[in-house]
Amino acid sequence: MSEIAAAPPPPGLSAGGFLKNNLRQYGMLLSLVVIMIFFQITTDGTLMRPLNLTNLVLQNSYVVIMALGMLMVIVTGHIDLSVGSVSGFVGALAAVMMVQYHVPIGLAAIACLAVGGLIGAAQGYWVAYFKIPSFIVTLAGMLVFKGMMLAVLGGQSVGPFPVIFQRLSSGFLPEFILGQDDFHLSSLLLGIAVALALVYFNVRGRARTQSHGIAVEPASLFWAKNAILFGAISGFTYLIVSHRGLPNVLVIMLVLIALYAFITNRTIIGRQIYAVGGNVKAAKLSGIRTERLTFFTFVNMGVLAGLAGLVFAARLNTATPKAGLGFELDVIAACFIGGASAYGGVGQVTGAVIGAFIIGVMNNGMSILGVGIDYQQVIKGLVLLGAVCVDVYNQRR
Fold first, then answer.
1. pTM (2 decimals)?
2. In this structure, which of 177, 282, 305, 342 has its CB flanked by the most CB atoms within 10 Å?
3. What 3-state class would DSSP assign to 247?
4. Model confidence over 11-44: pLDDT tens digits?
């Protein structure tokens, strides 16, 4: 009896075919590039100036931080409308503790993050164990913590903060190599090292995927993507460090992005989060403790909302009664624009970050062009609607 010949591996897709099949993954990145080119031209080069890039990072840091937590909530099939009020309340609490009661900065910061976690736990408990829709629970939370913020502040702004706390958002990494502030070589080398590390992990991940017999993107597209990634990060680092160096908050953002990318892609709990969002009944039957997982995604969201509140308060150097107003809209929009599905189970950390920067670049670019806040809201709303329409189209296809 003759041996049965092994079937040849399926032919790989062309670069165009691969892009078509992965439109969700690459579409938003291409959109960000196009939007940045558009505003770079229309603002006569103002968008990419070092000072403006630094302001862009500082202005959108709280959105990126909260988008990481919101992504986890959306992937599990829920929503959190209270993040803006929670961040404002935590910022107000920090101001009262540091400015009025002179609580040490470290102790006050830890207490504020703990309060954020407790708020997330309170809301997550009702959602996970009492099965109350997250929309209702967090809508109530938005009203409750908005009122509590006004009560804590007494209806007036509280500040300024200690200088050390201000550096959380307005400080920059010191120069370690030259010992001077006119050229930030250590910050530039750090940015290049991050770019090289990303390329290395991409290469290693592709090799591991191939070793399991799973189809990967064409080599030409893979190397072109990584070359562009390395060039973009290195160029961005060079531009931003030529102003005052790397902002402290940018380093915090990078650490959080790396941490959550690792959790979602490499850990069991990350896979379980996607399983719960994809089909909660099947996940429960497979042994996943869906209630506990949902509960902890809201706790995580509360902690990140608290951190964002600290960052925003440090940037303004004061806590105001209007802090956090509308933050939840930008955060949720960032996740959906970045490819998260309104049905749950789909979304990536990189997509949420890209979505946050799309919102940030649009806000910054339209402000430079003198577009009124009324039309800015209209344009952002249409962009969000378009992103959700793309998601619905992909679901039906």
1. 0.89
2. 305
3. strand
4. 455 656 666 666 666 777 778 888 888 888 988 8
Cα gap 89→376, rounded to integer Å: 26
User: For residues 195 and 237, what is the distance between their CA atoms, to the nearest angstrom?
Assistant: 10
pLDDT tens track for 256-287? 999 999 999 889 998 999 999 888 888 888 88
Structure token pair of residue 125:
């408990």
Cα–Cα distance, 273 to 287 (Å, whole number): 13
Residue 166 CA to residue 77 CA, distance in Å, equals 36
Tokens describing residue 12: 């790989």
Amino acid, single-letter form, for residue 179:
G
Collapsing DSSP to helix, strand or coil, 158 comes out as: strand
Q: Is 243 helix (H, G, I), strand (E, B) or coil?
A: coil
Name residue 158's beta-bridge partners. Answer: 319
Here the tokens at position 90 are: 């935590």
Could you give the angle at the alpha carbon of 269 between the alpha carbons of 63 and 346, nearest 5°? 55
Q: Are 175 and 319 in contact (CB under 8 A)?
A: no
Q: Are 317 and 159 a contacting pair, CB within 8 Å?
A: yes
The torsion angles phi and psi of 322, rounded to 5 degrees, stand at -100, 5
Question: Which residues make Cβ contacts (< 8 Å) with residue 73, sequence separation at least 6?
Answer: 79, 80, 134, 297, 298, 301
d(CA 99, CA 216): 55
